[in-house]
Amino acid sequence: MPPAAHVSQSTPFRWSGIDELVYKDGGTTFRDVTRRVLFGEEHGNGVEVRYFEIAAGGHTTLERHGHTHSVMPLTGAGRCLVGETVYRLALHDLVYVPEWTWHQFRADEDAPLGILCVVRVDRDRPTLPTQSDLAALRRSPAAEFIRV
Amino acid sequence: MPPAAHVSQSTPFRWSGIDELVYKDGGTTFRDVTRRVLFGEEHGNGVEVRYFEIAAGGHTTLERHGHTHSVMPLTGAGRCLVGETVYRLALHDLVYVPEWTWHQFRADEDAPLGILCVVRVDRDRPTLPTQSDLAALRRSPAAEFIRV
What we know:
6-stranded antiparallel sheet, 5% helix
């Protein structure tokens, strides 16, 4: 079946026929994150547009990889790490994660954070920080921000 | 200079350092539309993410092309045509325009419509309806919606 021309929402940020997916299989590198694929390979432009929702107090995995991320916060409140810098996010700000750059998104303690994230369909798998990487991050301005 | 990791907004939907561009050069096929490229080729995933803002009462060009569109309304109110069907848009709905499918976006008469639109960097140019195409559209459910 070809993709639908129009997908509406049952409630805000819950799209008809688009399932909630696990963020990652198992592990303890993240906390309270869900994933939905809004547009995928079948939409024909070589990327996936995903919606991640991080519950209040939650965070994505601290990781890096060879592909890039183009991100826009759509709802809620939070911050992100890109490289060694922590950014406070306003809705509809733009975040770019270059190749092989450490990054992590965190919701505020009292609000969720929902973000759009564009990636290539064909991409490499994320890698986690080694103990040596973590030691370096803990000597950087990112030290207080990161959760592992 | 590599792209910025974080781009904030001066006011909602006006991003620092991202210029307002003309929607299209000249012509009378559209009305009151601006364009901003939020993420482009330099962001490395093969697509452009554009923000189009259609002023109240305005509309984009009725056109079709070989590349696809993945669209999300971010602000305001309006409708769109995909093929021969007109859809009322709620914020954060998903719109997919397949290859060679007529499409047009219109803001309501009393509100602007701001949309995100993802396209491949490498894409063909849009084509306009011929008189024969228009005659067919005017016999379809799209008849009352289209503006040319």
